[in-house]
Amino acid sequence: MERRSFLKSATAVGIAAATGSMTSQPAAAAKTSAATTRPESPDMIYRELGQTGERVSAIGLGGFHVGKQQDANESIRLIRQSIDRGITFMDNCWDYNNGISEVRMGQALRDGYRSKVFLMTKMDGRTKEEYNRQLEESLGRLQTDVIDLVQFHEIIRMEDPDRVFAPGGALEAAVAAKQAGKIRYIGFTGHKDPAVHLRMFEFAQKHSFRFDTVQMPVNVMDAHFRSFTKEVIPVALKQGTGILAMKTFGDNYILRSKTVEPIEALHYGLTQPVSVVITGIDSTAVLDQAIQATKTFKPLTETQIATLLDRTREAASEGKFELFKTTNHFDGTAANPKWLG
């Protein structure tokens, strides 16, 4: 999987020529979607990723936080420690820390580590041209010929589905890249409003396309305000789409509410019908916390969930601790609309 002399530039073949129909698993690219077996640790939980056949760690390493360290070697050590302790799902994004997160992950995945993980990254581009440009950069930074999962990043505006599915849109590029063997699975992410996620699913159904994965906020406050857990998870489950949970701590804002402890928050996320809880790990202490959460995990009972949600209800009102829903503080594409293309 090491990056060799770079694959020829992104194909300009459209969806019709590439697949014959707009499907997430074209027959010609079936070999790229064959499930891969990876080492597993007794200290980690492993789950099926939707209907992909892939088995991945229930804790995912958040890519943003491994690009913040002053010393690149510290980031590399942390990524490798996480893998050595059983985390096989790697999250990243083309725009995290201006590409530094992908560069450091690519460096960490050398020396045999690439084969031990399921590698995911995200593209901001909404046009075929911009998606292809970003994908080529990500492949180079991550030092790999194939990325296991690429997701459309920050689907947070009502018009984002229109742009992705439009003629010449990013979906054409993603399906062509899958056919070319550059990516294996296709998904999307967003954190603003469940209505946008539902619209993305509606567009997919209209175009006879099924997403392999969907990433969304799943946390102890989500149930009370613009709830992805209540509105989006049932749709994803019905379609067989693997669910990736994020914003467990809301970038620590949820923890600042003093209504929940970190292990409780992780246990809540793991109790939901999700494949992976992606969490930011920026130190060995936080990694220890994540591993402790899996070692002590027992699904919460309905009574325990109700008690936890009652405890967070008042703090969760108006989304005041879920700033990713109510402000543009977390919206990289809002600050840099040029990335969309």
Structural notes for this entry:
The chain has 341 residues and is an alpha/beta fold. It is 38% helix and 13% strand. The strands form 2 sheets. An 8-stranded parallel beta barrel has the order 3-4-5-6-7-8-9-10, surrounded by 5 helices. The protein has a two-stranded antiparallel ribbon with strand order 1-2. A hairpin with a 6-residue loop joins strand 1 and strand 2. The radius of gyration is 19 Å and the shape is globular. The N terminus is likely disordered.
Q: What is the rounded Rg?
A: 19 Å
Number of strands: 10
Alpha plus pi helix count: 15
Provide the spatial order of strands within the biggest beta sheet. Answer: 3-4-5-6-7-8-9-10
**Alpha-carbon distance between the two ends:** 29 Å
Protein name: Oxidoreductase
Keywords: Signal
Present the secondary structure layout.
Layout lengths: L14 H5 L26 E3 L6 E3 L1 E3 L10 H13 L4 E2 L9 H9 L9 E6 L4 H15 L4 E6 L7 H6 L4 H10 L3 E7 L4 H13 L6 E5 L10 H4 L1 H7 L2 E5 L6 H4 L5 H10 L4 E4 L4 H12 L6 H15 L6 H4 L5 H4 L6
Parallel strand pairs: 3-4, 3-10, 4-5, 5-6, 6-7, 7-8, 8-9, 9-10
Antiparallel strand pairs: 1-2
Helix pairs in contact: 2-3, 3-4, 4-6, 11-12
Features:
8-stranded parallel beta barrel; 341 residues; TAT_signal_bac_arc; TIM Barrel; disordered N terminus; alpha/beta; TAT_signal; globular
